[in-house]
Amino acid sequence: MPRIWQAAGDAKSAPLQISSLIDHLDSLAGAALGSRLDETAMLLARVAQDRDCIPSAVLGLSIDPKKMLVDNAHVFVLHQTERYLIRLVVWRPTTGVEDEAFLYEGAHDHNFDLMTVGYTGCGYLTDLYSYQGNGQSLSERETVSINRHGRFQLAPGTVLFLSAGCDIHAQHAPDEVSVSINIICYSKKTFPQHLFEIQSDSDLAVVTAVLASREVHNEQDLMNSLEEAHRARSAHQPP
Ligand SMILES: [Fe+2]
Q1: Where are the domains of the chain?
Q2: How many A from CA of 57 to the centre of ligand 1?
Q3: How far apart are CA 151 and CA 231, in angstroms?
Q4: Of 57, 93, 119, 121, which one is least surrounded by beta carbons within 10 A?
Q5: How far apart are the CA of 169 and the centre of ligand 1, in A?
Q6: CA 12 to centroid of ligand 1, rounded, Å
Q7: CATH (residue range 3-233)
Q8: pLDDT tens series, the chain, 239 aa
């Protein structure tokens, strides 16, 4: 089920440079988003308190700026290794066609573990659900039982963790431009991705699209997965 750390980066926590988070991730590998999840959340929240985090990264003071822009203008890769990726995502309060770029409103799961923290702005709202997934692909139009975990706002300093293959979320456009920082750990396991239609009158969700099962081992795999989700979302938009 989704994990939330509310106001994890409180006043007692000193801002942390992203290089320290990178050291943590390098030393722990998969355990950073596994058995050491709480520790990683605290560190990520402290990074979100570092007001110099984005300028130094985006200006390319320590990172090759050619490697920062990956899929389009709202996603930046801050750091990547063969095991994980740290991204900065700018969420715009748009409606209409640009919503597709952000998958706003569309309930979906992921084929990777994701930890994210609000950095600036009010943060997007997201409805959280989970289902009993074991990494196997569901069928289109299949109905699954879901647990509802409420609505969460990715406000600055708050941390959210979503597990591959069992957590579902549907994001809503923020009221103001907001920025989040997220960690994506590549899995050794192959997970499918699905789009869902959450039933309003029951704790059920209907699978509206099954995306190809993919191993996510690098930035390109991730981009391919997200692009496929965007295409499927467009294809299943109500007229
Ligand atoms: Fe998502």
Answers
A1: 3-233
A2: 23
A3: 26
A4: 93
A5: 6
A6: 30
A7: 2.60.120.10
A8: 999 998 655 656 788 999 999 999 999 877 888 889 999 999 999 999 888 777 655 544 444 434 433 445 577 888 888 888 898 888 888 755 555 556 677 899 988 899 999 998 999 999 999 999 877 888 999 999 999 999 999 999 999 999 998 999 999 889 888 889 999 987 777 788 899 999 998 999 999 988 866 666 666 676 676 677 766 766 665 44
